[in-house]
Amino acid sequence: MKKFLIVVLVLIAVGAISFFVADEALPEGNAGPDAEALSEKVLDAVGYEAWEKIPFVAWSFRDAHHYVWDKEKHVARVKWDDYEAAIDLNTISGRASKAGVALEGAELDEAVQTAWAYFCNDSFWLNAPAKIKDSGTTRKIVIVEDGSQQLLVQYESGGVTPGDAYLWKLDENYLPTSYKMWVSIIPVGGVEASWEDWVEKEGAMISTSHKMGPLEIPIGNLKVGRSPEDFDLAKDFFTSTQEK
After folding, report:
1. What is the phi/psi pair of residue 101, to 5°?
2. What is residue 238's predicted lDDT score, i.e. its pLDDT?
3. Please, which contacts does 39-44 make with residues 24 or more away whose CB atoms are closer than 8 Å?
4. Whole-angstrom Cα distance, residue 99 to residue 228?
């Protein structure tokens, strides 16, 4: 019931945003060396190389989904409501429990799929700028009305909703300030979400606050580490996840 109410509230908020926002067509933009050069400036601004060197990161999404992510092995512990899952993000497999009771069969499969879908969405809000050159993406420069350059990134594959596109607005140092979205979950194109309250973690920049109309999307409990023990997990916590 709690999960259902959260979904309903989010849909109401998205509906309210859609009512006040005119539907925008996806801009054309220009691909090529200039777009690639702009994307490199964005990656430099957010400390992409430093981000890639961080082995573990933990965070909470809207204080509802809680994560510990082993970035090197690409496995994650995901907690929501009274569920806990430890999943291999490459194979979308693993183990899960509800109220401390291990799940099996169809219930396990459903929990693992839910954890994976949550992770895909919530890790994007954690650090989408680090994904602008992922495999399956295209990048274009868009010149907007004030003459400034914005970066259009489209995801042709990967995640839960391939085909989604994002137009990044950048400050004078190429740090993102917001993006407009053309995504399957929102019925109108061009809805804008802010990227603000940036914090630095071992050289990587992370935005910890997003606003999309009346909807706030905080990134909380942000922490980086070197091993599962840094997050009060057993050293071999993720090992069995990859063995299953």
Report:
1. -105, 125
2. 85
3. 39/132, 39/133, 39/139, 39/151, 39/153, 41/174, 42/129, 42/132, 42/151, 42/168, 42/170, 42/174, 42/175, 42/176, 43/129, 43/130, 43/132, 43/133, 44/174
4. 22
* β-pairing verdict for 149-155 and 215-225: unpaired
The Cα–Cα gap between 166 and 57 comes to 24
In whole angstroms, how far apart are CA 108 and each of 64, 79, 82, 113, 120? 20, 14, 14, 9, 18
Give me 28's structure tokens: 């054309």
pLDDT digits (tens, 9 = 90+) for 180-213: 999 998 999 999 999 999 999 999 999 999 999 9
The answer to whether the beta carbons of residues 202 and 225 sit under 8 Å apart is no
Q: What is the pTM of this model?
A: 0.88
| 112 to 161, 171, 199, 237: CA distances (angstroms) | 17, 38, 31, 16
Give the residue carrying structure tokens 């510990």.
68
* Structure-block tokens of residue 26: 């996806």
CA distance 47 to 44: 5
Q: Which two tokens stand for residue 153?
A: 């990134």
